[in-house]
Design a protein that fits this description.
The chain has helices at 16-25, 48-59, 86-98, 146-149, 164-170, 172-187, and strands spanning 7-11, 31-35, 64-73, 105-116, 119-133, 150-152, 157-158. It is α/β, with parallel strands linked by helices. Strand 4 (105-116) and strand 5 (119-133) form a beta hairpin.
């Protein structure tokens, strides 16, 4: 009897942290996550799911692809901070806007999309990872700088100080997305 060969699925990102997260979503599935050459995909949609779908579509020309787009919500900033533009506005702009901010609560929202040969198969958006902006000074931005500014008051720790079990307990956004992705492929 021949073993089933895992299906390749393109990881639609060049960001190493995002690639690791997308691989994690696919753990245990009969899929082979593949790093492919980066494609420049304009993130011009006005929401996270459409940006994720645009990336998945661009990378799906040769088959199956998975992509994500996330954003940091800072409720106290209102219209002055757009979560869809988190990556483009960056840590310096966030610092400028929050220097004297009293209410420092934040939340992470992420969208994940699956596409195959130019057709979106599914997309989900989840939120739930909540904390506060870490006290300054923030570390120099990494490839996924948002975690550098995330502080969890109930644990009295920043993201970088959390162990794996603590991260699993607070990162509700990605855990919820993993449930969606796993259910989609298990139903297939």
């Amino acid at each position: 009897m021949l073993a089933s060969v895992p299906r390749p699925i393109a990881l639609a990102t060049s960001n190493p942290t995002k690639r690791a997260q997308l691989r994690w979503l696919l753990e245990g599935l009969p899929l082979d996550p593949v790093e492919v050459p980066p494609i420049e995909v304009p993130e011009t949609a006005d929401d996270l799911p459409r940006n994720a779908a645009a990336k998945a579509l661009a990378y799906s020309k040769g088959g199956l692809a998975i992509a994500s787009d996330g954003g940091l919500e800072v409720p106290a900033l209102g219209d002055r901070w757009n979560p869809v533009l988190t990556g483009r506005r960056g840590q310096d702009e966030l610092r400028r806007l929050t220097t004297d901010l009293q209410d420092r609560r934040i939340r992470w929202t992420e969208a994940v999309a699956l596409a195959e040969t130019g057709r979106v198969l599914a997309a989900w958006t989840e939120s739930g990872t909540e904390g506060a902006l870490a006290p300054e000074p923030w570390p120099r931005p990494s490839d996924f700088w948002v975690w550098d500014v995330f502080y969890f008051p109930t644990l009295e720790k920043a993201w970088s100080e959390l162990n794996e079990q603590e991260r699993a307990g607070v990162d509700l956004t990605w855990h919820r997305l993993k449930e969606h992705v796993q259910a989609f492929f298990r139903a297939d």
